[in-house]
Amino acid sequence: MESDTEMEDFDSSEEGSNWSDDSYLADEDFSFDYQEGVDPHEDAVKPDEDEAPLLSTLHPDQQRSPSVNLSTKTYSPRKRVPASPSLKSKVPRLSTPRKNSRLPHRTTESDQPWKTEEHPDEGPQPLRFCPSRPPGPQVDPSAMYSPLDLFQMFFTKVTVRTLCDNTNRQAARNIGRGKKFKWIDITVKEFYKFIGLVFFTALVKTRAISDYWITNSIFSIPFPATVMNRDRYRIISWNIHMSDPDEDAVNDSKKGTPEYDRLFRLKPLMNDIRHACMSCFHPHRNLAVDERMVASKARNGLIEYIKSKPTKFGFKIFVLADSSNGYTVDYTVYIGKNTFPVGFGICHDSVMSLVRPSVLGSGYHVYLDNYFSSPKLFKDLFDMKMGACGTMREGRLGFPRSEENALTKKSPRGSLRWIREGSLLFVKWKDAREVSMGTTIHQAYGGETIKRKRKNKDGKWSHESIPVPTPILEYNKNMGGVDLSDQLITYFSAHRKTMKWYRTLFYHFVDIATTNSYIIHKDLCKVNKMQPMTHKEFTQALVAQLCEVSIETQSKPTNTGHTPVPIKPVADKSKRSSAGRKRCELCKKSGHSKDTPWKCNECGIPLCVIPDRNCFHDWHNLEGMAPVEYQSSDS
């Protein structure tokens, strides 16, 4: 029988990562593998009006004619037209350029010189903040919500009912394939208990799932066995399924065609959780878009490798999060270049698909890192009445290339330069290294300074204040929304090793639901001026409510020692000597038939306590008479 419940070592720490004011900029990776910082899926160069048209836009007769002039500069990495064998040497291979070949600059020469902090910048026209709903939890703030109530906003009974139906079908299908296990259809109530045990394993760590059901050992954990036996828990883990297995077969038959959906097995639950994330909470003004990695090494073509991430291998998810609290507002699982149908590049399209005015409203401020940022994206967001700010690679199409008054390697620390092109501001700042920013929200410099250490000529360190652009301070303040969300998820994550790739994302959806539930709990407590539970206390309460048990257990009575007590206490004095009399155990062993109204309070054994026959004393002092729990012959 295959097993997917063996757990990997939990190496995540509950300690939050503290970052300095410039941690995002210091950790930002400004190096890139391709020439001039060009993202082949982002920066497509359009020809000037006076240039010849692209080969793909010519008349069909012209395309077939060998007399077409192919020496015209036509740079379009999105569209490649196969050339005839005789002309292959004249057509550059844009997908795999030579190391010594140089792609054209994707930036524009600006007529403006770079300005310094001494030049005033009026800033862009402020955007009016008009959210579609009041920011915050979309529930009645005066009502009291338990952790289970908040969790069931995401995993509703309808959602769980669908999961149960698909899991039952998958189990029947596995049995039909010859898998040998005993299956009883899972119910909604039992599924909630299963999720409760999943979070219990996140709170109490062991090396393997089977360790939670060890008996007769000092390392035994008694609680899981009171909720569900080991085999039932493992069998449910093996058969969890989010989509209809019959529809999976239909989708699998379409492999190799455009109709094939690579995320078909995720869609039912993924869409339900996305809808719940957007409906249960409306974000505040500052938002962050970033990548999230869900650890996995599955071999299905969806695994990505990002060297700069703590989790280097896994599923890549584009996440929109509230910068103020880390709430996951929306997300999209990356499946390759065809993740989004718009066609302006994955960096541009991923942001535009997450930041939707029809859902959010207008006037939001979106913070991005240099993977997403581009002048075109910032202008498109501003046209949608959305502000944007983020680090930007100088090789992006539209970034100014003016050399007049530009920063140099010898520029002192704290030097800044800026150029404004309408609503879009470009800023360069010299810290430990040069940093480039773009923004449609802020002015270039508002008089802010930060402290940096400086080594004097005598070898001693001192602090000095250097000017810092306003966009950089605001970026460091608001870019950490997704990082905060990741941090909260890792504290008590349901993530574990699985045999099926889609079950890894199932547990991640569970993590999103419980983390967002806790954030809503804190916001509601803040509105009602109440002290919120800690993250650990919230998760513990959720486990107890999912498993339908009390979080508090009755303590075992303290040992008072071996003393004689009445077998049956009665109020009537005339019946005290006869009420509840039982055969004395020591007299029975001696061959006598004597009854007594007394017993040992610790052992529960009936024993005589009279002046001429103190069986109680003799019983507890006889060698080999260990105190054991007494079993009455009447019971």
List keywords for this structure.
elongated, 18 helices, PiggyBac transposable element-derived protein domain-containing protein, alpha+beta, PGBD, disordered N terminus
Structure description:
- This protein has 635 residues and is α+β, with helices and mostly antiparallel strands.
- Strand 6 (313-322) and strand 7 (328-333) form a beta hairpin.
- The longest helix is centred in the last third of the chain and has 27 residues, at 501-527.
- Strands 4, 5, 6, 7, 9, 10, 11, 12 and 13 form a nine-stranded mixed sheet that branches. A two-stranded antiparallel ribbon has the order 1-8. Strands 2-3 form a two-stranded antiparallel ribbon.
- It is built from 18 helices and 19 strands.
- The protein has helices at 23-27, 60-64, 147-151, 157-176, 188-203, 223-227, 230-239, 245-252, 267-280, 346-354, 357-360, 375-383, 470-478, 481-491, 501-527, 535-546, 585-589, 615-621; strands spanning 130-131, 136-137, 281-282, 286-295, 303-305, 313-322, 328-333, 361-362, 365-368, 387-391, 416-421, 424-430, 434-439, 449-455, 461-467, 564-566, 582-583, 595-596, 598-600.
- The protein is elongated and about 115 Å long.
- The two termini are 44 Å apart.
- The relative contact order is 0.13.
- Residues 1-14 have a biased composition (Acidic residues).
- Residues 146-518 form the PiggyBac transposable element-derived protein domain.
